[in-house]
Amino acid sequence: MIKRTKSISKELTKNDTGETGAHQAGIHVPKQQEILSFFPSLTKETKNPRHSIKFADPMNEKWTFNYIYYNNIFFGGTRNEYRLTGMTKFMRKHSLKAGDELILKRDDNAIYSIELEKQNKISTDKNGKLKLGSSWKVINI
């Protein structure tokens, strides 16, 4: 039987890496079904459901990140977003900066791995301002 690997990538922003100094709870995950299908499913019936996911990096070091659906909008709050959190130590250890790319992979046995490409590029508009927006890509779903 041939093992298939699903993979997505995220070009990191200054906000993702903490370079802006702003506080945020992890990397925002867009609500695109193709991106969400990479992660374990989370239910709306529970407030802020989460799932811990163990990833192996290229050196086979294990990292546990949390995939969270902040859904308190359904419980009297305002948030309605998915995030991947618990990544600060990983980012610091690998000296990740804006423009670097994370590649997340999952095989048929739900074994997760993470790779990185140091690119040191930052997208800017014609005025030199940082361009934000979705920098997630589906590689293979």
From TrEMBL:
InterPro entries: DNA-bd_pseudobarrel_sf, Rest_endonuc_II_EcoRII_N. Residues 8-17 have a biased composition (Basic and acidic residues). Residues 8-89 form the Restriction endonuclease type II EcoRII N-terminal domain. Residues 1-23 are annotated as: Disordered. Pfam families: EcoRII-N. It comes from the Bacteria. This is Restriction endonuclease type II EcoRII N-terminal domain-containing protein.
